[in-house]
Design goal:
Layout (H helix, E strand, L loop, with lengths): L2 H15 L6 H13 L4 H17 L3 H11 L4 H13 L2 H9 L8 H8 L10 H4 L1 H10 L3 H10 L19 H6 L1 H10 L6
Helix pairs in contact: 1-2, 1-3, 2-9, 3-5, 3-9, 3-10, 4-5, 4-12
């Protein structure tokens, strides 16, 4: 499965999940599972390989900084959930974030988070990232085989993690302006990431 086909499936699930931010993770997960159970198992595994690749593409200090600002902190697990959430926003937003994570300052969910009308963890979609595993379990009745089959097509890469950016500085001024409390916390705990 190529990246374009992977995006077609993600976009279809995003459309099916519908607009709005309440229960985004559950809606995205359910919609993606329903799409994936229609695929043959090898295609499902190929989808997961591409889906994981998209998420790994966001494993950068500047994206970590965006997650920290929006979430008022960011653990390793939260960062993984945030990267899945960015994929769940669709290809347009994913590409915008890949170009410059500060563009998230224009996203309506980020504005709603800053205004306090939706939870800060709205874009952290843990369930959505595990939709391929759930679909595999539905199709096969097994969860162990998923990882074995995935390793056969795409060995898991070692990830440097978000804090290994060395002295790279990230300037996300518009996001920082939306989340001044997070900016102050970030300067205390991760000064090497602030410009």
């Amino acid at each position: 499965m190529d990246t374009a086909r992977c995006w077609e499936i993600v976009e279809a699930a995003r459309c099916e999940a519908g607009p709005g931010w309440p229960d985004l993770d559950d809606r995205l997960e359910n919609a993606l599972v329903e799409r994936l159970v229609e695929l043959p198992v090898p295609e499902l595994i190929a989808f997961e390989a591409r889906f994981a690749e998209l998420q790994r593409g966001l494993d950068r200090p500047d994206v970590y900084l965006a997650a920290y600002l929006i979430g008022h902190g960011c653990s390793d697990d939260t960062f993984t959930d945030f990267r899945a959430g960015l994929v769940g926003l669709g290809r347009d937003w994913y590409e915008r974030v890949m170009t410059d994570p500060d563009q998230l300052a224009d996203h309506p969910a980020v504005h709603a988070i800053a205004a306090g009308t939706i939870p800060r963890d709205t874009l952290m979609t843990e369930g959505f990232q595990f939709a391929p595993l759930e679909a595999y379990e539905r199709l096969t009745g097994d969860d162990e085989g998923f990882w074995t089959e995935l390793d056969a097509v795409s060995p898991p890469p070692s990830s440097p993690g978000p804090d290994n950016g060395g002295t790279a500085r990230c300037n996300l001024d518009r996001l920082a302006a939306l989340f001044p409390d997070s900016r102050a916390s970030l300067e205390r705990h991760h000064p090497h990431l602030t410009g």
